[in-house]
Amino acid sequence: MSTEFSFKVLATDGKARRGEITMPRGTIRTPAFMPVGTGGTVKTMYMDQVRDLGADIILGNTYHLMLRPGAERVARLGGLHEFARWPYPILTDSGGFQVMSLSKLRKLNEQGVTFRSHIDGAAYEMSPERSIEIQGLLDSDIQMQLDECVALPAKDKDIEKAMELSLRWAERCKVAFGEQPGKAMFGIVQGGDTPALRVRSAQALSGLGLKGYAVGGLAVGEPQEVMLDMLDVTCPELPTEKPRYLMGVGTPDDIVKSVARGIDMFDCVMPTRAGRHGLAYTRRGKVNLRNARHADDHRPLDEESDCPAARDYSRAYLHHLVKSQEALGAMLLTWNNLSYYQRLMQDVRDAIEAGAFVDRTAEISEGWARGDIPAL
């Protein structure tokens, strides 16, 4: 296994890219979906299951882990990989989004952000340097710069101010990260829904010579077409030889359309959160197991799936588990959802390699459009 961080594009089909990120702890096949392991766990899943489904990398959350159990404690216990029994690559986000979205009492300035924990109200400070320090204590393989993410819609002057601050923080994060063989720090493009600001941000970050670049501040309430428009103007400004990561996205349709614009990496809580709330993702679209029509349906979610949760359990049983709020319901549906997402990524990778991306993704979209098979 390589002792350095590297990325190479193995095939292209239009703007879609099939590639590989190579790191000491493993190879990440791209386009890749990273299951979200917010607090050191992918909710309701065993780590062995997550790996067996095809995940090459998971995401950990700096904000949540610094609050509980604490980054210094994780470091004393051998780092996040040993703590969570995941010996493969881990990406940690910077914690900035959670500070903005979860902490009701916060104060932002040039130095960083001060905030109170949503758990117990304790006061904390997060600077670019402290964010990188925490991610280092967690021993993550890909670390994200601290940035300011504004909710959309927002005024242009507020978007520009946040974008400029994020650029200055990126420079400080780069210095704090230093030289870490085999690891990488990614910058985050901001700029809201304003194309000119997105271009400025992408160009300035590209000038820092980082090992990868993320597109942040999207999928925060804006319509899908706005997100895709921002990718259309942003991706061409990012280095072709570096991986591109769209943060917090998304639905299967979001992912397919973003791959078509040159995105290589994704994360989202959607498949795990949906599983805990009775919603299954399948090749026929979404299936809501809360609906009474499933109560007497002996059929599985998908008889052709290679995932036991989708293939071996009846819809009636899944419906019963969901309505009864049994833990097994969340476990099975999350298993199904992550399996579907990883299968989708493999389909996309294979299609790009075969030069059949447009045709294959059209077939996938047609399956979603046809919808689920009605109950008997």
UniProtKB/TrEMBL annotation:
Residues 15-366 form the tRNA-guanine(15) transglycosylase-like domain. Homodimer. Within each dimer, one monomer is responsible for RNA recognition and catalysis, while the other monomer binds to the replacement base PreQ1. Its EC number is 2.4.2.29. Substrate binds at residues 93-97, 147, 190, 217. It catalyses: 7-aminomethyl-7-carbaguanine + guanosine(34) in tRNA = 7-aminomethyl-7-carbaguanosine(34) in tRNA + guanine. Residues 248-254, 272-276 are annotated as: RNA binding. This is Queuine tRNA-ribosyltransferase. One of its GO terms (biological process) is tRNA queuosine(34) biosynthetic process. The active site is at 93 (proton acceptor), 267 (nucleophile). It is an enzyme of class 2 (transferase). It comes from Mesorhizobium zhangyense. Keywords: Glycosyltransferase, Queuosine biosynthesis, Transferase, tRNA processing. Catalyzes the base-exchange of a guanine (G) residue with the queuine precursor 7-aminomethyl-7-deazaguanine (PreQ1) at position 34 (anticodon wobble position) in tRNAs with GU(N) anticodons (tRNA-Asp, -Asn, -His and -Tyr). Catalysis occurs through a double-displacement mechanism. The nucleophile active site attacks the C1' of nucleotide 34 to detach the guanine base from the RNA, forming a covalent enzyme-RNA intermediate. The proton acceptor active site deprotonates the incoming PreQ1, allowing a nucleophilic attack on the C1' of the ribose to form the product. GO terms for molecular function: tRNA-guanosine(34) queuine transglycosylase activity. Belongs to the queuine tRNA-ribosyltransferase family. GO terms for cellular component: cytosol. The gene is tgt. Pathway: tRNA modification; tRNA-queuosine biosynthesis. Pfam families: TGT. Signal peptide: none annotated. SUPFAM superfamilies: tRNA-guanine transglycosylase.
